[in-house]
Write a structure and sequence with these properties.
alpha/beta; TIM Barrel; binds iron/sulfur cluster; about 25% strand; about 220 residues; nine-stranded mixed β-sheet
């Protein structure tokens, strides 16, 4: 079985609850969505056998928080991902899955082997796509067996009603999970300030723990 991998590198986590943690990143090729704010344009890949990729990961000698399986969408290659999750655990690496939270059937097949899930809450007014409410619901029902937190990109187009719906979904399926609000890094932050303050208040009203975290890669100039 061969996986299509766009790149492998080490850096610090640039977003979410584990911001600043040192990780090895394995970027999977391919995505099933096309969010309008996407800045991950992947045009090429290398093919690896799972053991071959694991050998490469072992060459990283520093102390790492975890191996981040990111994309694209890693669950599109669930069989290869499953092998990699098993191998990293066996090799005493913690693993961390970054996912758009739509491939719920695939998640069921790997859930026993994953440590931390960082799931995107795809708000339609932010992504420019249709909503994935039912997919997210089914995804969270499984993901909540593990440590999971959610991230939502907030832009000038994001509608309050979308956030309310996302918060209700979180309350119903993943009680206690934290939501990270992430200002769109392509937009000027100043004009989002009032909206973000209002959205944080909404989260409190809906009793969802929230934090506001900028993507820092572009700010500090790392990958
Ligand atoms: S899910 Fe992620 S990788 Fe896929 S299009 Fe959206 S932002 Fe890009």
């Amino acid at each position: 079985m061969r996986g299509r991998i766009a790149e492998v590198f080490d850096s610090i986590q640039g977003e979410g609850l584990y911001l600043g943690e040192k990780q090895i990143f394995v970027r999977f090729y391919g995505c099933n969505l096309g969010c309008k704010f996407c800045d991950t344009k992947i045009s090429s890949f290398m093919e690896y056998e799972p053991e071959e990729l694991f050998e490469e990961l072992k060459l990283y000698q520093d102390k790492y928080h975890s191996v981040s399986f990111t994309g694209g969408e890693p669950l599109l290659q669930k069989d290869f991902l499953k092998e990699m999750l098993k191998l990293t655990r066996k090799g005493n690496f913690r693993n961390y899955l970054e996912t758009n939270g739509t491939l719920y059937e695939e998640l069921k097949e790997i859930i026993d082997y994953v440590d931390i899930i960082a799931m995107d809450l795809k708000l339609p007014s932010s992504t420019g796509l249709n909503g994935f409410w039912e997919e997210h619901r089914l995804f969270l029902e499984t993901a909540s067996q593990r440590e999971v937190f959610l991230k939502a990109v907030i832009s000038r187009d994001t509608q309050e009603e979308d956030l309310r719906r996302g918060l209700r979904l979180m309350r119903e399926t993943a009680q206690g999970a934290v939501l990270v609000l992430q200002p769109d890094s392509n937009e000027d932050k100043a004009h989002l300030r009032d909206k973000l303050a209002k959205f944080k208040e909404l989260c409190r009203e809906e009793r969802v723990t929230v934090c506001l975290v900028n993507q820092i890669h572009k700010v500090i100039g790392v990958r």
